């Protein structure tokens, strides 16, 4: 087994500056120590604990007690969290650091470890949160970019980031329980679980699920529908979301909900699809009668909460 050990601040993450500023500010806020020298080379032991001990000896002639150390650490964490919320770029990775670590892990035979002069609580708490937050942001950015061509940015597809969100929730719960007790941690965990969970009713009834994606896939992959005309039932903007980027020449004609129209004598176009419907409030038989579509003359592709009607000859 081969071991590689990385420092954190300045090696894997560009956090040296924000770390120094928040450390000095924490000492001002908790102890009133002004003008803390942030050139760490002047200190005998360049760790958070060693620097604190030396400052205590210089200002108070003694080492800090556990309660004082906890106050400073708590304030330090709060300041870092505030800076993260205000400007996450201050915590960006050193270019190439993430890919290098990933390469070592993928190659096999390597064990990667983290060494830092910071307090253990900070390294343990922030490392997984940073990694998982970065993973979520990269996934969302990639999905958003791909969606400019093919719509995929749906709650179902974003399920891939759930493991990372679970890790973040677990780290936050652990931190809250350590600082304010089990009751506060449990309250946060319950609230987080509620936000991350989706009710069964909403999953099976809310549109923009399989019915949109599957029926849109059929429309987009039907030969001849690169252009032409398709009638859609309801707000055409919802349907156009799926076609405007990849089928800009395909014309969608809106039929308002509740309206009637005789589609039985519509002139043919290059696209064999006559009607595209997504929704739970109607079915193919009801709309067929309302829109002048007799079953023998048209083919129907039925989906979960959606259907597509083809001109004769039927495509089913």
Relevant terms:
elongated; alpha/beta; 7 strands; 3 domains; five-stranded mixed sheet; single chain; 11 helices; 316 residues; two-stranded parallel sheet
How many whole angstroms does the radius of gyration measure? 30 Å
Q: Structural class, from secondary structure content?
A: alpha/beta
**Pattern of helices and strands:** EHHHHEHHHHHEHEEHEE
- Percentage of residues assigned to helices: 40-55%
What's the arrangement of strands in the largest beta sheet?
Answer: 4-3-5-7-6
* Low-pLDDT segments: none
Biggest sheet record = 5 strands, mixed
Mean of all residue-level pLDDT scores: 78
Our count of helices gives: 11
Percent strand equals 5-15%
- The total number of structural domains is 3
Determine the N-to-C terminus distance: 59 Å
The count of DSSP E runs of length 2 or more, i.e. the number of strands, is 7
Specify the overall morphology: elongated
Architecture blueprint of SSEs:
Elements: E1 2-6, H1 16-31, H2 48-60, H3 66-86, H4 97-107, E2 110-114, H5 120-147, H6 162-180, H7 182-196, H8 200-205, H9 210-221, E3 227-233, H10 236-243, E4 249-255, E5 273-278, H11 284-290, E6 299-303, E7 306-310
Parallel strand pairs: 1-2, 3-4, 3-5
Antiparallel strand pairs: 5-7, 6-7
Report on the architecture of this protein:
The chain is an alpha/beta fold and 316 residues long. The protein folds into 3 domains: 1-118, no CATH class; 119-197; 210-310. The chain is built from 11 helices and 7 strands. The chain has helices spanning 16-31, 48-60, 66-86, 97-107, 120-147, 162-180, 182-196, 200-205, 210-221, 236-243, 284-290, and strands at 2-6, 110-114, 227-233, 249-255, 273-278, 299-303, 306-310. The strands form 2 sheets. The protein has a 5-stranded mixed beta sheet. Strands 1-2 form a two-stranded parallel sheet. Strand 3, helix 10 (236-243) and strand 4 form a beta-alpha-beta unit. The relative contact order is 0.08. The mean pLDDT is 78.
